[in-house]
Amino acid sequence: MRQTITLRRPDDWHLHLRDGAMLNVVLPYSARQFARAIVMPNLQPPVTTAGHAVAYRNRILAALPPGAQFEPLMTAYLCDATEPSDIRRGYEERILAAVKLYPAGATTHSEHGVTSMARVARTLETMQELGMPLLLHGESTDPAVDIFDREAVFIEKTLQPLLRDFPRLKVVLEHITTEEAADFVAGERSGRLAATVTPQHLIFNRNALFMGGLRPHQYCLPVLKRERHRLALRRLATSGFERIFIGTDSAPHIRRLKEAACGCAGVFNAPVALESYLMVFEEESALDRFEGFASVNGARFYGLPLNEERITFERREASGPGEVQMPTGDSVKVFLDGAVLPWTLLDTAEDRS
Ligand code: DOR
Ligand code: ZN
Predict the structure, then answer these.
(1) How much distance in Å is there from the Cα of 122 to the middle of ligand 2?
(2) Whole-number pLDDT of residue 349
(3) Does residue 136's CB lie within 6 angstroms of at least one atom of ligand 1?
(4) What are phi and psi of 324, to 5 degrees?
(5) If DSSP codes are grouped into helix, strand and coil, which group holds residue 130?
(6) What tens digit of pLDDT does each residue of 27-40 get?
(7) N or C: which end of the chain has fewer CB within 10 A?
C-alpha cells in the first residue's frame, strides 16, 4: 500500500475568497494547498471590470500570509452592461483570466447577472476571438423548473445554443452535479468545453441535506443531487478524462447566515479540499489519475504553464477543523465537520526537513 503521494502543486479553478475580514481568515487555507486559484467575482458589489479586478487582486495579495506563493487568477462578473473593450484590455494585460456568467437570480449575489444571452453577445464574440474562457453557473433560473432539474434544463436551453452560436468559445461548466452534465461534457467533441466538480458533489448525495434533520451546512448551489448523479461524477472525474478538473467552489458564510430561516448557499471546504478529493480517488482505485485532475487538466485547458513545485501527502489519518473563528466573533463551519481523512498534506517546510 502506498504511504506517500507526491504530485505537482494543484490549482483550484473555482474559489470564493470573499473580502475584508473573511478574506483574511479563509485565504491561508487555499494558499497552503494551491498554487493558483480562479477567484469568483460575486462580491457585493460584484467585480465587473478590469479595474475592479486589479483592486481586488491587490487586496488578496495583501492578505496572503508572509512567504505564501499563491497567484489569484481574477475573473470579471458578466452583466448586461459589460463593455467588451474592458474585457479585452483585462485579458490582454493579464488582469483577467476568465469571465463568469451567473444567470440573474441563480445564486448568492447573482442579482446583477445576465438576463439574456443576446445582451452579452458582443462580449462573447470578443472572448471567442481572444480564447478567453467563459465560466458558467449552469442552472436555469426559470422559477417553474424544479430545483433538481435546473442544471439539465440549462444544458438544453442555454448551453447547447451558446456552443452552437459561438463555435470557438472556450467554456467551463462549473461545479457539475448531474449525470446529464457529465455525459454532455464527456461527449462534446470539439475540446473547448470543460467542467469542474466540487468535493461535496463527489462525496454526498441529496440525502445529506436531510440526515436526521435539516443540514444547512450541506446546502450549496447547485444543490446536491441523487446517488446516480454522484456516481456519474465520480466515474468521470476519476476516469482520466482530460477536461475535468478541481474547482472546490469553497464558499464560506458565517454560521448565523447559514443556520437561518433563509440560509445562504455555500460549503466552506477549503481547509480539507485536497484531502477530500484524494480520498475519492483512492476509493475509486484511481490514485494514479489524481495528478491529472488536480494539477494538469485545468492548466492545459486555460493555456497556462504547469506548476513546477511538488507537494506530498502522507498516509496518516487526520481530521480537519470543524469550524474556523472570525475576528468578529462569528465562526464558519467547515466541510466534513472535522471528520478523519486518510491522507495528510505535508506542509512544504515539513516536507523539506
Ligand atoms: O453554493 C454556492 N455558494 N453556490 C454559488 O453559486 C455561490 C456560492 C456563494 O458565493 O456563496
Ligand atoms: Zn461558486
Answers:
(1) 25
(2) 53
(3) no
(4) -120, 150
(5) helix
(6) 999 999 999 999 99
(7) N
